[in-house]
Amino acid sequence: MKKIYCVIVQFFCAALIFSAEQAGVSLGIRYFDKQLYYPQQGDILVQVTITNTSSEVYHFRLSDDRAFSIDFDVRALTNRPLENADVLVRKRTGQQQVFFRELSLDPGESLSFTENIRDWRRIDNPGSYIVQARFYPDLFKPAVSNSTESSLFVSLSGTPSENKELQQTSIESNRLNLQIKAPAILNSEGIPVALEEETQAVYFREHLPPDEVVTWTLRSRQKSQWEKFFLYFDIEQMLLRDAARGRVWRAESEEGRRRMLAKYREDLGGQVIDGDISAIPYEFTIEQTTYNEDEGTVNVLEKFRIGDYTELKRYTYYLRRAGDIWVIVDYVVQNLGTE
Predict the structure, then answer these.
(1) Whether 121 and 247 share a structural domain
(2) Does residue 201 belong to any structural domain of this protein?
(3) What's the number of domains the chain is made of?
(4) Which one of 62, 94, 151, 292 has the lowest number of neighbouring Cβ atoms within 10 Å?
């Protein structure tokens, strides 16, 4: 009996896919206004197009709230799906009525609309993702009872809707590559700090291991390229290293904290505070790098010219993973004398 049941289930699922394919309907997605995307910042707009490629009229339902007609599957390259957005969870688990229309497309006709992927999925970290849409021509059916389901969906087509069971038939779209960049560090005016003054080139954080992050930082300092020097610093954590500044920080408003960050960065660049971190080594050697999944340390021997002699210092940089990006959050210095 179990074997027969499995065969029936498999046949039913295959029939749904088969019917969607034989309907001669295609679902296409493309970026509506492709730009640079960042975690938790800005809309990610995608144009969804339903096209009738058959020789017959295609009938379907389309909800006013697209959460019950469309779904977006967003996965990391490891095939890990991203979590549902909070707004999607509230919509699909609530008891509000869903209004929909009975529509039809003649052969060759298309219907397009634009949606924001962030309304479906939480995209909290930088990285590479694959996006695919799924269209439910008979609407997406939440896990509710039949009696609740019958009162959940309300037709707006002007004619009574058939009282039929809503199936989970779906049509899948093409796939899109989605690149989420690490957020650029902004100055007090909202401009990326990694903006090269001479070339106006904008630098973005890349997926570098801890030793390469420190190497980038020190080489940028040797060239007095402050915009690049600050790129991999967690400025907030660096500011909070000082207990007195930390107390002021916690008492400040959001606007006050932004001013504190801008002032701290300005003072750091002018070597007014924390002079050890902004000093210019003429030579450095990475001695040891250790890190796990979330934290790392890099020991560096740095040499400084002081008059006629060379001062030696060992810097230990502490890094933390922010999403997929390693950033410097602290450091200590050990004086080793001169040579």
Answers:
(1) no
(2) no
(3) 2
(4) 292
Q: Is the pLDDT of residue 317 over 60?
A: yes
Distance, CA of 128 to CA of 75 (rounded, Å): 9
Amino acid at 306: I
For residue 110, the model assigns a pLDDT of 94
Q: Cβ distance 168 to 15 under 8 Å?
A: no
Residues paired with 83 in a beta bridge: none
Please tell me whether residue 308 adopts helix, strand or coil conformation: coil
- Contact present, 26 and 54 (Cβ < 8 Å): no
Query: What's the CATH number where 20 sits?
Result: 2.60.40.2360
Lowest mean pLDDT among 150-154, 205-209, 327-331: 150-154
Last residue of a domain, one of 160, 180, 200: 180
List the alpha helices (DSSP H) in 70-142.
86-93
Name the DSSP class of 66: G
Give me the amino acid identity at 61: R
- Phi, psi for residue 191 in degrees, rounded to 5: -100, 135
For residues 41 and 222, what is the distance between their CA atoms, to the nearest angstrom? Answer: 33
Q: Which residues have C-beta within 8 Å of that of residue 53, sequence separation ≥ 6?
A: 24, 25, 26, 107, 108
* DSSP single-letter state for residue 240: T
Q: Is 272 helix (H, G, I), strand (E, B) or coil?
A: coil
Q: Token pair for residue 57?
A: 């009229």
Taking the C-alpha atoms of residue 112 and residue 88, their distance in angstroms, rounded to an integer, is 21
Q: What is the pLDDT of residue 183?
A: 63
- For residue 143, what are the domain limits? 2-180
Q: Is 216 a domain residue?
A: yes
Same domain, yes or no, for 133 and 18?
yes
The reply to whether 216 and 275 lie within a common domain is yes
